[in-house]
Amino acid sequence: MTESHTPFDHRPDTRLGAALREALTAPGDRTAFVARVLAGAARQPAHPVEHLLARWAVRGIAAAAAAAFVAGLVIGRGRASAEPSVSDPDPGAMIADVQAEPNLLLVAATGR
Amino acid sequence: MDLASAGRATVKMATEPQRPTGDARNAKEVEDAALVARARSGDREAFGVLVDRYADQARRVARAVLQDPDDADDAAQDAFLAALVKLEQYDSARPFGPWLMRIVANAATDRRRRRKVRSAVSLNEGLVAGGARPDVVAEREVLLGRLRVALAELPERRRLAVTLFDVEGYSHAEIAQVLGIPEGTVRSEVFHARRKLRVLLADWRDDG
C-alpha cells in the first residue's frame, strides 16, 4: 500500500493516514457533536469560583510581596536616619554622669 | 472491481491528511492562542470556534483509544469541557493542539478504564466485515473494518502515536508532549504501529 515509505520514515504516511482517518471518523453528525459540547459548556459557569479565587490568590500574593518590599524600604530608611551620628553624646558617658541612688541600685540587683 | 482496486480507490477518495507548512502552522497557533485568550475571559463564542476546529481530531483520537464511536464522542465531549475548566492552566506560548489532545487521550483512557471496553467488540465487528461482498461500498467497509481491527490489536499508546502522527499530522515532539513519553519512544511506537498496519493492509490487497 505504501511502497514509498519505510517504517523508519519520519514523514507522515499520507496513504496510511488517509485510510486510518476514514476508519476513525465517527459516523455521527459532526454538527450535533459540536452543539452537544457547546450546550455542556453553557451549563458551566463562565468563571468557576475556584478559578476566580486562584486568580485573586496570585494577585494577592503579588500585592503582599510588593507591600512587604515597600515597607522594608521605608523601615530601612527610617533606621538608617535614626542611627547615632558622630556628634551625638556617648550613652555610656551619660549613664556614668547620673548620680545613682544606692537603694535603687540594690533593688535593681536583687530584682525586688 | 476487485478488492485491491476498491482499496486503492478508497484511499484515493479519502481526504488525505494535510500537514500544514511552518507558516500556516504558526498562523494557526497564533489564532488558537487568541481564541484561548478570549475563551479565558468568558467568551463562549471563541470557545465554540475552538471546539469546531478540533472536534474531528478529538473524536478520532478518542476513537483510537475507545473504538466505540459513541464512547469516543462522550470522551471527546468530556475532554472539551475539561479543557474549558483548565484553560487557565494552558501555557499560550505552546501550541494548543497537543495540549488539548493530551486531555482528550486522558479522558478516553479514563473512560475505557471505567467502562472496561474490550477490544474484542471491535475485533468481532472486524471479522464480520471481513467477508467478501460484491459492491464497492462493502469492500470499502472491509478495509475500514480490518483497519479498525488492526488498530484495536495495537497497544493503546501505539494506536495514539500512529493516529497523532499519520492521521493528525503532529510531530514526534508534540506527540511526546501529548503522551508524556520521550520522543524516541514515540518514534519507536509509530514504527511498530506502521509495521503492523502495513502488513495487514498488504494482506488485504492480496485478497483480491
In short:
The complex is a heterodimer of chains A (112) and B (208). Chain A is built from five helices and no strands. Chain A is an all-alpha fold.
Which outline of chain A best applies?
elongated
Strand proportion of chain B, as a percent range, falls in under 5%
Mean pLDDT of chain B: 81
Helix content of chain A: 55-70%
Poorly predicted runs of 5 or more residues of chain B: 1-17, 117-133
Task: Let me know the number of strands of chain A.
Answer: 0
The helix/strand series of chain A, from N terminus to C terminus, equals HHHHH
What can be said about the biggest beta sheet of chain A? none
Describe the oligomeric state of these chains in a short phrase.
heterodimer
SS field, number of helical segments of chain A: 5
Biggest sheet details of chain B: none
Percent helix of chain B, as a range, is over 70%
Total E-strand runs of chain B: 0
Write the H/E string of chain B, N to C: HHHHHHHHHH
Question: Biggest interface pair, residues each?
Answer: A-B, 39 and 54 residues
**How large, in whole angstroms, is the Cα Rg of chain A?**
40 Å
Q: Which whole number gives the mean pLDDT of chain A?
A: 72
* Radius of gyration of chain B, in angstroms, nearest whole number: 18 Å
Walk me through what this model shows.
The complex is a heterodimer of chains A (112) and B (208). Chain A is mostly helical. Chain A is 66% helix and 0% strand. Chain A is built from 5 helices and no strands. Chain A is elongated. The model of chain A has no long low-confidence stretch (mean pLDDT 72). Chain B is an all-alpha fold and 208 residues long. Chain B is 79% helix and 0% strand. Chain B has helices at residues 3-13, 22-40, 44-66, 69-86, 96-115, 119-129, 136-153, 156-167, 172-179, 183-207. At the A-B interface, helix 1, helix 2 and helix 3 of A face helix 1, helix 3, helix 4, helix 7 and helix 8 of B.
